[in-house]
Amino acid sequence: MNAADDTVWDPTRYLDFGDHRSRPFHDLLARIGATAPRRVVDLGCGPGHLTGLLSARWPDAVVTALDSSAEMVAAARERGIAVEQADVVGWTPAPDTDVVITNAVLQWVPEHPRLLPGWLAALPSGAWFALQVPGNSAAPSHALVRELLAEPRWAGRVRLRGERAVPEPDEYADLLARTGAEVDAWETTYQHRLSGDDPVLAWISSTALRPVRDALDADEYAAFRAELAPRLRTAYPARSDGTTWFAFRRIFAVARV
């Protein structure tokens, strides 16, 4: 993540939906065809709960993990992950980097489309670069946050990412293919079956609502959540068994240079 972003991440809350959030990583990893990479980079590793999968997949590789959040780095180190606190904007792949995987990170880095060609150019021939980003900014979970923030009580209080925080799959495909890489790009909408009270609100509290939480004091943030909750319940109604379906679109791209 971008070190210029000085807001605070909560690793524990982020992992509340760990199984659901991990599934795209597995799907992304499955499309990487590297057999004997020298160095594998987990670019924006978060709490490190998935970094071990890279060592399991490629036991002879040097696995390098980095994240800009001090809280996430601390959580990863508690798991025994050797992780560096670093800003992805200033990152450059080492000459022996044969695989880079960045999962649910680049949506927080507005300039990442400009960075991608340089990263691929620095990779050795035959290396793999794989990314996954959320593509659900138009979903009710995010649109309702923007609508509420535009109302008089909250107007001008919080600065969010733009409604279009990431390119579309075809745009990633074109951007990466222009470097000469072989590219595979796609999208998947996952239907997550959630349980508990206000589960969609709980989900976005560790991601989309992070800028809101950091801009408001505790009482204001509680008031904002109280106003948002019934709107989310209407958009994502609970089923008769108490569970809630939460549609989540994600965008993937894999390039072999």
Automatic annotation (TrEMBL):
Please indicate if the UniProt record lists Methyltransferase as a keyword.
Answer: yes
- Record keyword Cell inner membrane present: no
A GO molecular-function descriptor: trans-aconitate 2-methyltransferase activity
Task: Give the keywords, sorted.
Answer: Methyltransferase, Transferase
Question: What's the EC number here?
Answer: 2.1.1.144
The record's Gene3D superfamilies line, in alphabetical order, gives: S-adenosyl-L-methionine-dependent methyltransferases (1.10.150.290), Vaccinia Virus protein VP39 (3.40.50.150)
Give one Pfam family: Methyltransf_23
A Gene Ontology biological process term: methylation
Checking PANTHER family in the record gives: TRANS-ACONITATE 2-METHYLTRANSFERASE (PTHR43861:SF1), TRANS-ACONITATE 2-METHYLTRANSFERASE-RELATED (PTHR43861)
Q: What is this protein called?
A: Trans-aconitate 2-methyltransferase
